[in-house]
Each structure stands twice: as structure tokens, then as C-alpha cells.
Amino acid sequence: MTKFKTTKFSTALWMIGAVVIAGCQSVTPATNNMAQEVLKPSTCVVEPPPVDENGKPMPVDLDDRLSMELRVFFDKDSAEIKQQYTPELNKIIAFADRCSNLTFFVQGHTSKIEQQAIDEKALHLKSSSQQLDFISLSSARAQSIKNYLVNLDLPAHRIRTFDCSADNPIAPNDTEEGAIMNQRAFGWISARDRYDQMLLDCREF
To answer: Is a pLDDT exceeding 80 seen at residue 165?
Structure first.
């Protein structure tokens, strides 16, 4: 009788142990997944500041760590991105990966000479009987930047494009050198709102 009770008690302990072990095995993956979700950054992660030769942190402008700008200059009447700007575009991708909650803004600009030719073409198309879709050069420049970044897996919904035509020159348009400076695209990704005023004279598309 005693042997039977001992055996029955041992069997019960074994069953409880099996349930506990099985329970641990089923909970562990869910716990790991939860930990991974918590550790995955959903906001901009600031990298550690650089240090000097003595290992002491160096002063850093916080805006520089939470913002990145892009400047791309184009040949006249062209929206083709030159090879020399590839490294800068790749830096935007790296920054966007680190700051997954931020949006990239890009503006397309033209020189005054380019814009005059564009306006004349648009006027001609409007007065003709031809039904043609007209895309301005400044829009095409912003779009070419977006296309490049999307091809590198930056989601399209994280990129906003703006057509600024020739309304915001950064150099005089009466010289060839100045015109070249205005044949550009300017973009930024930032955790700050210091760029808000730059969108007032541009059309989003």
C-alpha cells in the first residue's frame, strides 16, 4: 500500500514537472520576441559623442547629430544625378535607418534661365491642341532624388517632394556661375523644426 502511494506521488510530481517545463518552452520565444520589439528603436537614436585623445567627450552641436542636409547640383536642363553625389545620398539612407520616425524632405530648384524656358514651353502646350502631361524641371529634380532613395529601400511614404521652381535662388542668376548654383535639389531629414520656413514658397507634389 505504501509502495503504491509512493509511486502515485512520484508520478504526480513527474507530471507537474513536465507541465512546468512545457510551459517554459512555450513562453520563452514570446518573451524573446517582446524583448526584440522593445529594443528596436522607433525614434531617432543619438550616437555617442566623439572623444578626444584623453578619452573625454567632445562638445557636439545637438542639431548636427539630429539633422542631415543634402545638396545636389545638376547640369543645365537636366535632372540626372551625377555619380559624385552617391556617397551623400547613401548617408541619407544611413541616417534614415537610424531615425526611423523621421521624414526626408527634398526641394527641386531651377535657375531663372531654365525656368523661363520651362514657362514658355508650358504656355505653348497650353495653347496647343496637344494633350501632354508636363512635368517641370524642378519637380523632376526632386523626383529623381526620391527615386534614388526608394531604390535603396527608403519607403516612399517617408519622402516628401516639393517644386520650388526659380523662386528661391541661392546665387545671382545673371551670371553662369550663379545659374549653376541654382540648378539644384536641396533636402534634409531632421528631428528639429528649423526648416519649416523653407516650405512656404514651394508646391508639394
So the answer is: yes
